[in-house]
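In the previous chapter we treated chains in isolation. Here, by contrast, the input contains three separate entities that must be folded as one system, with a combined length of 1314 residues.
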Amino acid sequence: MNANNVYTPSEALIEEVITLSRNVNLYTVKTKEEIKWLPGQFFMVSVFGFGEAPISVTSSAREPLKFCIKKVGHVTGAIHGLRAGDTIGIRGPYGNAFPLDVARGRDVVIIAGGLGIAPLRPLIHEFMENGKDYARVFLLSGSKTPADVIYSEECALWEKRGIRVTLTVDCPDDSWDVCTGLVTAHLDKVEADFQNAASYICGPEVMIEAAMKAVSARGIPEERIITTLEAHMKCGVGKCGHCYMGPKYICTDGPVFSYKELRRLAERFGKGHGPQDDPMWGY
Amino acid sequence: MEKFLTVCPYCGCGCGLYLHTEGGRITGVSPSRNHPVNTGSLCVKGWNSYEFIQHPDRLKYPMIRERGALRRATWKEALRKVAGELSRIKDSRGPDAIGVLSSAKCTNEENYLMMKFARAAIGTNNIDHCARLCHSSSVGGLSAAFGSGAMTNSITEIKDARVLFVIGSNTTEQHPMIGMHMLDAVDRGASLIVADPRKIPLAGFARIHLRHRCGTDVALLLSIMNVIVAEGLVDVEFVRRRTENFDAFSSLLEEYRPDTGERITGVKADDIKKAARLYASEKRSMFFYSMGITQHVTGVDNVKACADLVMLAGHIGLPMTGLNPLRGQNNVQGACDMGALPDYYSGYQAVKNPASRRKFEKAWRKRLPDRPGLTLMEMLHDGVRAMFVMGENPALSDPDTTHVRERLERLDFLAVQDIFLTETSEYADVVLPAASFAEKDGTFTNTERRVQLIRKAVEPPQEARPDWQIICNLSGLMGAKMHYRGTYEIMEEIALLTPHYGGTLHHRLDEGFGLQWPCPDISHTGTPYLHRKKFARGLGSFTSVGYMPPAELPDGDFPFLLTTGRISFQYHTGTMTRRTHIIEREEPVCLMEINPEDAKRLGIAERQGVRVKSRRGEITVTAAITERTPEGTVFLPFHYREAAANILTNPALDPAAKIPEFKVCAVAIEKAG
Amino acid sequence: MKKNMPVPIKTEAVKEWVLDKNHLSYWLRQLRKDFELVAPLRERNDIVLKRIDRIHEIALDCPASIPSPKEFLFPQFEPMLTKGTDGISDLRDGSKRVIFGVRSCDVSAVNLLDKFYLSGIADPYYESRRKNTLFISLVCNVPDGTCFCAGLGTGPYLKTGYDIQLYDLGDRYLLQAGSKDAERLVGRHRFLMRKPSKTDHEDQYEAQASSKAMFAERISLEGARQMITDGKVADDFWQDVAERCFECGGCVYECPLCTCFSVIDRKYNAGPADEQVERSRLWDACMFKGFTGMAGGALPAEKRILRTKRWFYHKLIYYPETLGAFGCTGCGRCTITCPGKIDMASVVHRMGNEYSKG
């Protein structure tokens, strides 16, 4: 009976837990059946008794399934209480994937803010593995503090394989001797042919908006500026309604959108989704 | 799918709703379209009232504390333990060493039995319930003025009123369905006067919003009355025919000219005049008040001032007029009516009156104590050695909870009967699992005195039992046998002994949407409005006294005035709402409202943690910066155990009603680490 | 010329029978042998849709706004699955039900719900209930004062899309079966029925005409849609609407076309080592700020105006774009339930008053 119920998670074994930063862990999980996914897709991950949350895949198709999870709420908090050998429930993959055709033969500018690097990682792998299909690949990755930087070792590996990496933190400490400030402030260092480039952006919503504007201003056409959004979700398959954005649902119409699509939605319906300028509760 | 018509378990509106069941489980609710109160609507709490009923946290079996921890026990064991301990204390220290808290969440039948249990089985008048904390000042103040403390008019009349005067009630959030009728009236052209220090949602619809300082209600009302007298707007005929003590009262009024009012309350003299003219010159004027009036050390004075204003304008004893205290709990009106009070039997028949006492002694075949008992606050602060608490949570709901918890800790014996483990049950020696509103029959009386049937839709979880059965079991073990085949038999006994409820038998209530008391006999169709032609006490009495400031005002050390209340998404101590997914998701943290000016001065950012300190304790909450609250004042809801506002509040009592001053205390605020 | 003549719809396309009113109870009693029979019942003047024990108590003269039958396909609270030590078990409901006496507007709503829940990745819980539920709708002859289906084509009678549709022709019903399943079901008791005559069809026509004439409300959702898409409706308008919102969620709960839900997990301890988790879903509403709340506590739609506006945009603009019809059937339930009087009909009225003249 379970086979035809999309809401029934399959059991997955946590094989390994690696601490990436003070509140981010990397979980490698093993499923009974083989599961395939594309860069940008997500799974609904559940801990029974706590609930489900949408988590994007952080591993490439050649790797085992991995989730990079930050402890922010009820469910992710519960996941952080689990160890290797414990089981979780997963169902998916859901959502669309990062479009690759917009980047073929062009320079690629990847901009990540905080945990935003997680869903972009399989994309980076794609560019490394099929380097000949793309021109130069730039990665700008920003974090709040040096303690929040994740995948710093991998960045070194990526650099060796031709990705031009810039790491930056907003609030540096004594140990930090690289770049500081917001990611968008370092776009000048990116010597891409912007008119003829594609960009992939992920991070907190404010940062996504700023970065999309910045690369657009430098000349990347709106349809080649790609981002992935996150939202409150209960089902992952376009039924529960929580992740609405105008007429779209982030889970089925996204989570990957181009700047062009988002602009069009905002023009037609107002923002209706995104951080508000002033807090209001009650009337 | 089955559907059962019952009454919402939250506020005093008493909305009719259907509980839906499928396979013995609750699967939802829907509003009753023809119910006179909610007419097809419900508030968010009503719509989600199905969820807590089958929450896994429900108490499923009795528990006894052993070596500090509660363990599962059998009913026999638990009941024997409670009866044994209570009897032991009664024998060694006298019945008055025991205190009983009845519950405004339980049915009339259960409250009646509880007061019978206290008086006849234990032999003490130490019985009270949370009405002490909400409307004891109404009962006191209105008994003196009118002879009856209940809401005088009906909810259905609101929409046809021409003027609504609402003071100290955040109606659209706390009594949403009454708020709905008020909005309806405004849509039909009625003028709304709101008096509230906070910019409550209703104020957005008001012709006049009087934003007086917290605790200056008497001064505001007296200066309004001063204008009414000065401008000749008094209903002279009414005052002459139906009231007394006007002369003494009118000389008091002379001191409260509008400019004096302005000085004390901060409301412009002009607005005071406008409000007075508007209220007095229209005949269909209804007056509403709630906790903003009652929860003060001057609570009774406040209520008396409201009563005097209503009488001065002659706005009582007719439809679409009246003085309407809005009751907070689903059955707080009923619990008072049933005599879960230290000084009254059911129907407000005084314990001190030998004739009433003899009547109950005869009916119950027991000698009854003749001295009024202790009030809730007195029980908790001295006096008793043992307590029996049914469906109340004083460890979170009462002021200065640190002190309350110490007292509960020191009791020789505490039994708690509830549907969930509460903060109070942390101190209990025995915990008894009760049935929720969906699992038993009985009646609730709403704020407009409507006695309504609730109907059993599902079985209680595992071993839980309806409260009335538990009381019967206990009473039997303590030598006062109670035997009823069902709650309808209890109601028959109530009807026999309580004139107001003489005709509210279950089979009659089953026919429609209940009956409004007074309903003296089985042919009576209920009373939509009170004091027609004659006040309950004969003549209405002008009883106002002068303005007295709150017991604790801001000073150099504690520069902010803290006022407390409820928010629309949570309910009281949250035992039910905090177990309701959608409601808890809306307001999961305790937010303190603070004015933007104050926040700027203190350097507090939106949603930043702040420490709030009073002379009694401190809590950490999250700041919500809003114009809703005036400068110098902060507002806290009291629902959250992790940030219990009542750690801060002042237990200073109104001398007559013994109601604590929840609405005003002084606090200091600082950014949390 | 002949080519352009309209082709008359063949009446054989719809299977029709006539059932004497005296035989209705018998027929329903027969149906009840295989189905749970749900129908409207009068309770203290309220109309309640529930399982029927005594068939003669069914109230067929009730106003259209009986509670929406949505709850039989998508209940307010529905257990989804449990997880115990022995794995996960599926709690899908597959009870066979006949829902008798619902109105055309609600059948129209179910058709749109089918489109929503069954397209893309189908919702298994809805699917299972839907497969096992058969609606017998009644052509509406007692519209409520709040009803406005007549102008939307979602009622008072349907041309297609029903399971079984009944026309009240005085002493008899005209039955129309709109699906193969329905045909088979009616066919089982064909001995109770006869084929319709010309008089029956004349009476049917009269019933259609008189039923349409009974509607008081005329609400133009299309007009409202155009005013919004033309950019005429300013945010001030929505702000005024939002200020009257009680945040009760009633409009969503009552709406036969609101589909949102939340999911909760509850732990039940059968024993110390035997923990059972039940995952259930329950009705949720976009009127709540927590509805879009993120795990970290951010509230994207904290402002009430965003939420009230969203509800109207969803029904008036997004629904036609994504599912091809308005997300409103004109059933008028939001008008009955909304404490702030900002239901579909009132708001569209107000919008017309404010913007259509200018």
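The radius of gyration of chain C is 22 Å. The longest strand of chain C covers residues 261-271. Compare these points with the single-chain example from earlier in the chapter.
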